[in-house]
Specification:
Layout: H1 2-15, H2 22-25, H3 38-49, H4 54-61, H5 65-69, H6 73-92, H7 97-106, H8 109-129, H9 152-167, H10 175-186
Helix pairs in contact: 4-6, 6-8, 7-10, 8-9, 9-10
Amino acid sequence: MRSSRRWRSRRRARCSRWWLPATIVSRCQRIRIRQPSRAQSVAWLTATHGAAEWPAVLDVVGEAPFNAAVLDPAAVSRLDSEVRRTVAEVRAGSADPVAVAERWSRAELPLRLTCLENWLTECIRGALTGPKQPREMRDRAHPAAAGSVFNSRALYQLLDGVRELKGALSTPINRSLALESLLRSLGSFGLASTERR
């Protein structure tokens, strides 16, 4: 019994997709491809797709020029502004989370979730570094800004929830219900004001 278990575990290890014979690994060369800088991405996008608000698109989708190339820059800017405005309305209680979730789940949900993820990240950065600090995270401890209202646990849980929902979009989940839960959570705690810098 023990020997058959051992044989099965060895066979699983050999069948693993990451397993390669030592003779092949010794001949493999690892090539690291450096991520393009913002200036290089904007230059490439402008050269291949024409002049547009590419920095604003890259602010939304991250340093991913291939992802940015398939998007309409004007539509991305409009969508980002609309998501930020709607989040402010939900937090103020002037927008119904159920209606917003239903509307968002019907169109451009992955991009809307990316905009929401960016907004939450900016809230975290703003609360940790203060409004006048650069957007890049520094490599030392970040004390909370004086006078900021920051519930770090709830904010990080929301960010995790957005990322989990983004990862589950290809599964048969009730998108509007999951989104409604996230939007209701947004209004349940205070955040410092975080205008786009």
